[in-house]
Amino acid sequence: MVMLSQDQNKPINLANKWNKSTDFKGIPVIDLSCPEDAKNLMVNACQDYGFFKVINHGVPLWLVSELENETMEFFNMSQYEKNKYCPPNPLGYCTNKIGRNGDVGLIEYLLFTSDHFPTNSKNFSSLAKEYVEAVRKLGCNILELLAEGLKIEPKSVLSRMLSDENADTVFRLNHYPPCLDPSPNTAYLASSNGTNCIGFGEHTDPHLISIGRSNTTSGLQICLPDETWVPVPPDQTSFFINVDDMLQVMTNGRFKSVRHRVVTDRLKSRVSMIYFGGPPLMEKIAPLGSLMEAGEESLYHEFTWFEYKTCTYKTRLADDRLSFFHKGSHPSV
Ligand code: GA4
Q: Quick check: CB of 135 below 6 Å from ligand 1?
């Protein structure tokens, strides 16, 4: 595998084991219309991979496709028009740059925060709001089922953080343009399937739970515990759920925050929408007492979501942010 680094001092680390995992049976599919089965299957998926797909999720498909159309309309505007929405304009349009510390990818995106959905069209804003609300409810449902599956009480012990009026939500609309030939400055991944540009480099999500979907273009890959990378076949009518860093801490490492990345397709555009559900900024994060077994020690220092988030924005995308909060390490970055 050949890799062009984005930064001479710190090349991105692309694992080169590929599809060698022997016991991986595919992405777990959870049917939310059978909650009794879903609880246990979801707990297993969170423990094994930190990743699963949900069907019969209750989010109206018209809402999903209308928002996707508006999103495409936005990204189809001229570069000159889109640049009008770059920060400090609150819309938060950005191209190539990811985060604040030098990460780049072959991507353009819109980032919204909980209470800020200003866009170029009223319809776009109201669809985005309605979509985020529907997906937040789905997140609450999943977190309640997980609490039940873990046999911890009350069942709102996790979901209450997303239903809190101060829940810290981020919403992201991504557009990955197709890329046939990486330019000299573009990171890429060469595999037996050909060369693909890196759209969004490997990372874990810092929040509690991420709920994403894409159009029919592939590109998302997840890293299994044995460090093999597997592609996630796209499914535009389902949602893909990631365990994020906060859920790993609250379950004292039982659930795995999944490392993932996105490569661009050689011919087709990829559009994805991801909701990141986080706790209120001042929420104290620590393993749930009701989950800890007698004598079990917390693997992490206690911290607030604000402290973790502040640390997140000082790191590079691929960094292992949780390691700064492990017992035995120094929490200040
Ligand atoms: C990854 C998950 C979300 O997309 C995000 C990302 C954020 C950003 O794009 O600004 C970060 C990244 C994400 C983690 C490390 C930091 C912050 C880019 C980056 C290099 C919006 C988030 O909350 O964390």
A: no
